TrEMBL record:
This is Class III extradiol dioxygenase family protein. It comes from Alteraurantiacibacter palmitatis. It comes from the Bacteria. The keyword Manganese does not apply. GO terms for molecular function: dioxygenase activity.
Length: 284
């Protein structure tokens, strides 16, 4: 039976990818953020997960404003990273887990969600940057990928509650999967930031720390704000916290925080990394 060993929650700012490409990990501007991945690397080396289920948002690579699904799940045998305009392109391919993807899709539909199913799919910096952070180097990624895209771009957006329930449905699907894989859950994006308009550069440290404080022990605290509240609090792109909320919903066991890092700013964004451990015991 498959096992969810934990969750990794991190920012996916394209500037991080450029810093990786330019080997700026020890630059004073970037070092506080990259140092937050030391415990993540240690944990991954110890746990050695075989599949990564990644909740993220597509930035116009697969879907644009004229066709924006609320939820989309990849079921491809392989994914590739394509540069959507930021000047970064990582060459390592991502091996898919189509059998597990189809199982998740079937179970999520049975839970009355209606995701778009993608048998061919590219991934952008929202997947590529976290993978490069977690598994630096040139070797093939040691995990297979199941990508789950959430609309955080085109209103109306899904509610935080809906995203949390989606994550729970994915968690139940993984629990019912008969394979032997050890699985890590990713939630990527944010934290607070806004890239355009009169509030460009907006960062809300208080809201970010509220999310970080409650993510492990009380994720339902993050559901008290609707999507428009979050846009007001965290900025129009800060609503990417929906990806974190969905990923937290998939961690259905007894969850505890192993590491947390918060650094402001990176490219006008509040950047954070959180590592959560998910025990085998499922709470009622």
């Amino acid at each position: 039976m498959s096992q969810i060993c934990g969750g990794i929650f991190t920012s996916h700012v394209p500037g991080i990818g450029k810093a990786i490409a330019q080997n700026l990990q020890d630059d004073p501007y970037w070092k506080p953020f990259f140092d937050g991945f030391k415990p993540v690397h240690q944990w991954l080396a110890a746990e050695q997960p075989e599949v990564a289920v990644v909740f993220y948002n597509d930035h116009g690579l697969n879907f644009f404003l004229d066709k924006m699904p609320t939820f989309a799940i990849g079921a491809a045998p392989q994914y590739r990273h394509e540069d959507e305009g930021w000047g970064i392109a990582f060459g390592r391919p991502y091996e898919g887990a189509p059998d597990l993807s189809w199982h998740i899709i079937e179970q999520v539909v049975a839970s009355e969600f209606d995701p778009v199913t993608c048998q061919s799919m590219a991934v952008d910096h929202a997947v590529a940057v976290p993978f490069e952070l977690c598994w630096p180097g040139d070797d093939a990624f040691p995990v297979k990928l199941v990508p789950i895209a959430i609309n955080t771009v085109q209103h109306p957006l899904p509610s935080p509650r809906r995203c949390y329930e989606l994550g729970k449905a994915v968690g139940r699907a993984i629990e019912s999967w008969g394979g032997p894989e050890k699985i890590v859950i990713f939630g990527t994006g944010g934290l607070s930031h806004q890239l355009e308009g009169e509030r460009a550069g907006h960062i809300n440290v208080d809201y970010d720390k509220f999310c970080l404080r409650n993510l492990a022990p009380d994720p339902e605290a993050l559901l008290q704000h609707d999507t428009l509240d979050i846009v007001e609090l965290a900025g129009s792109q800060g609503v990417e916290i929906l990806n974190w909320i969905a990923a937290r919903g998939a961690l259905r066991g007894s969850v505890r925080e192993l590491a947390s890092n918060y650094h402001v700013p990176i490219s006008n964004t509040a950047a954070a990394t959180v590592l959560l451990e998910n025990s085998d015991k499922v709470l009622a």
